[in-house]
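Title: Comparing notes on inverse folding

I've been comparing how different people in this forum approach sequence design from structure. To keep things fair, I'm posting one structure and asking everyone to reply with a full sequence. Here's the target:
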């Protein structure tokens, strides 16, 4: 077969053959009898189904992701890296490569198991014991020599022959008879040996049998049309493999007792019409699986080198260099051969199978997670011609990660820690490249959009039964004072939502727009530094009134309409500034919002240990809002040690009635305050009230005072310059009384 501009230009059949010949491999021949013996027929069917709850979602996710873009060399690594980015892709790619390279060793060890019949001959004729390494090491050397000299074309031609032998072997097995003297009717569906291995141990040993379905993906760079061939070949291999597996375990169940299956790992040879066919099939299956892995693993390593993922520019260049028109990864094959040889020398089938399971779980879980996130990210560039379902991908990801910890808590934790360390190392090497940010940002954007629409529709049908502050603030004095943003940050820390808009006076031009972008970056940096939950933005407008008109009409970032607005001025500000605040309050009152005006001092809220709330005869609508805002402030760590003290300054005839009303609200749990924190006092004139406020609250870190629009119309700036000797004061006007339940 000649190389083309798409490697060797393979079609769909090689993908299917690579997958099915790996699926129908060593585990099927050597460990399915063991699985039936230790878990019973129903147990092993459960293992097969559970395994395919991982592999089928992965196959669907892989098909989906692969049909979205031009898939090049590197198979699964290419797909992951181009979806998650080269940093997280590199981490998973390294894990994937190790699993593929270890698989080469695993299949060669299993290949040697087919020659255990030589053991008595060697003992009788030569007086030596049989060691699988006598077969696996020379076989691995020959395999590497063939791949290095002949490349992928030879491997694919071998797959055709191997697939034919495998299906012939299985046909002879299914036509075979039960063992002599075995009564199939006497064995129940759950019968197993005494003291069997646990379900999860058996699953970990058997799971690599299900992983072969992605073997063909590694040929992505050599496919004529990978967007068509990858999903078709992979899905067909997965489905056919599952059907064959269920047939095999059922045949074993009705052909041999559990005790025999547990002792004889080649029990299929005893059941088959012609026993040697199973040995031939095992040899072919393990050899073809090894060929598949030794073709795929170097291409993954070559792709890692091409993306400069590994440490050292020279190493990456050397590994990425291919040979011939098909760019065969000769250098990467040599590295893979050395690694496989080390595992062959020191490994065993069951141990290596468990390690492979862990590596593949990480890769498959990541593929499913990518597919799941892409469904919600709704990126315009993500347009696969084949689509899975988000809940199938989510199921696959969750099961993968749960099974990792079930198989081995230690190795699962170690694997995750190693992956995190690799990610940090690669991220530093790539100068802070944030691969996950874009995908998660798109997913979060879509989720936010969906929730905001749902919240808006829900609120259109019903009246809100619980008030929480959704505060907006428009201000041009952002960078010369700290207190306003501090107050907004405290109010929206946990219970509320805040939007801060920096006002830039002028017409919208290229210059003012550029200025707004620069200021927004400064605001975001400040919010990040202060760990603020306030949403930051800018607005360019001819006047503060027009800026208010614009921002008061936009929806809140929480999905609910803004219901409050915060204004500010400093004690040192001129009376003209206060007049502007009065005008802004009058303008904003048209929107029926809660108005808050912060008069801040140089103390910056002092030690933040005390909040005093003053209620008067004019605060019937304001009272609950003022008290609730005070307790919302206590939810921020900066005010965690503060106490709220409420002073009810009322005409003498109203004191007792108000006391009873408050007591009832407190007993019903509708007022978040203790009776001991409320002080009632009879005040019959405004001057006495002002003296009492000064006496009680001159040292308070924050004083909350109510106001109304009638008083603002009559007294103007005097409403906010009142109580001049207090420190920081928050003036509150509520359009109506809110309920506190």
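Reply #1:
Here's my take.
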């Amino acid at each position: 077969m000649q190389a083309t501009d798409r490697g060797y230009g393979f079609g769909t059949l090689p993908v299917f053959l690579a997958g099915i010949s790996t699926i129908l491999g060593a585990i099927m021949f050597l460990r399915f009898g063991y699985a039936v013996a230790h878990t019973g027929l129903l147990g092993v069917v459960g293992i097969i189904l559970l395994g395919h709850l991982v592999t089928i979602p992965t196959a669907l996710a892989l098909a989906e992701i692969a049909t979205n873009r031009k898939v090049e060399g590197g198979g699964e690594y290419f797909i992951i890296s181009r979806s998650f980015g080269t940093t997280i892709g590199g981490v998973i790619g390294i894990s994937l490569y190790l699993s593929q390279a270890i698989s080469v060793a695993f299949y060669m060890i299993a290949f040697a198991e087919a020659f255990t019949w030589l053991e008595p001959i060697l003992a009788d004729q030569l007086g030596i014991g049989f060691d699988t390494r006598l077969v696996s090491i020379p076989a691995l050397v020959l395999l590497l020599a063939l791949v290095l000299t002949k490349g992928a074309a030879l491997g694919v031609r071998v797959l055709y022959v191997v697939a034919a032998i495998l299906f012939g072997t299985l046909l002879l097995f299914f036509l075979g008879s039960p063992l002599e003297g075995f009564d199939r009717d006497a064995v129940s569906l759950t019968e197993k040996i005494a003291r069997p291995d646990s379900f999860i141990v058996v699953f970990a040993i058997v799971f690599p049998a299900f992983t072969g379905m992605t073997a063909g993906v590694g040929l992505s760079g050599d496919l004529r049309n990978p967007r068509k061939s990858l999903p078709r070949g992979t899905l067909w291999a997965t489905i056919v493999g599952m059907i064959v597996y269920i047939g095999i375990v059922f045949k074993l169940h009705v052909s041999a007792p559990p005790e025999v299956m547990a002792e004889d790992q080649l029990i299929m040879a005893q059941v088959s019409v012609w026993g040697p066919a199973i040995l031939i099939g095992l040899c072919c299956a393990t050899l073809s699986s090894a060929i598949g892995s030794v073709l795929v693993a170097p291409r993954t390593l070559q792709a890692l080198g091409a993306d400069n993922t590994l440490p050292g520019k020279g190493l990456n260049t050397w590994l990425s260099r291919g040979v011939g028109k098909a760019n065969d990864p000769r250098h990467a094959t040599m590295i893979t051969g050395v690694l496989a040889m080390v595992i062959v020398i020191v490994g065993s089938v069951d141990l290596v199978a468990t390690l492979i399971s862990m590596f593949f779980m990480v890769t498959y879980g990541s593929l499913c997670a990518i597919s799941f996130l892409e469904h919600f990210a709704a990126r315009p560039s993500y347009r696969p011609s084949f689509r899975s379902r988000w809940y199938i991908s989510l199921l696959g990801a969750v099961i993968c990660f749960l099974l990792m910890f079930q198989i081995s808590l230690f190795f699962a934790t170690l694997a995750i820690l190693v992956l995190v360390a690799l990610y940090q190392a690669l991220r530093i090497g790539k100068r802070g490249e944030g691969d996950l940010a874009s995908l998660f940002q798109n997913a979060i954007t879509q989720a936010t959009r969906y929730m905001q629409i749902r919240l808006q529709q829900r609120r259109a049908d019903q009246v809100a039964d619980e008030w929480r502050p959704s505060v907006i603030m428009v201000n041009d004095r952002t960078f010369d004072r700290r207190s306003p943003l501090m107050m907004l940050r405290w109010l929206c820390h946990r219970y509320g939502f805040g939007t801060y808009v920096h006002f830039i006076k002028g017409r919208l031009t290229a210059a003012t727009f550029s200025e707004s972008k620069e200021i927004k970056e400064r605001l975001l940096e400040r919010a990040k530094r202060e760990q603020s939950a306030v949403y930051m933005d800018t607005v360019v407008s001819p006047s503060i009134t027009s800026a208010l008109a614009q921002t008061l009409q936009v929806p809140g970032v929480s999905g609910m309409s803004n219901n409050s607005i915060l204004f500010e001025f400093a004690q040192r500000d001129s009376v003209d500034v206060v007049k502007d605040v009065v005008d802004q309050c009058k303008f904003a009152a048209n929107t029926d919002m809660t108005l808050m005006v912060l008069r801040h001092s140089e103390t910056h809220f002092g030690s933040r240990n005390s909040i005093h709330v003053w209620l008067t005869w004019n605060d019937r609508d304001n009272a609950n809002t003022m008290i609730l805002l005070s307790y919302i402030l206590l939810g921020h760590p900066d005010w965690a040690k503060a106490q709220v003290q409420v002073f009810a300054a009322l005409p003498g005839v109203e004191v007792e009635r108000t006391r009873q009303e408050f007591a009832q609200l407190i007993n019903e749990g509708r007022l978040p305050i203790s009776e001991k924190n409320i002080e009632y006092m009879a005040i019959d004139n405004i001057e006495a009230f002002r003296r009492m406020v000064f006496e009680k609250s001159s040292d308070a870190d924050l004083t909350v005072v109510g106001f109304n629009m009638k008083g603002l119309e009559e007294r103007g700036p005097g409403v906010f310059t009142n109580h001049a000797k207090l420190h920081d004061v928050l003036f509150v006007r509520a359009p109506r009384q809110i309920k506190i339940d």
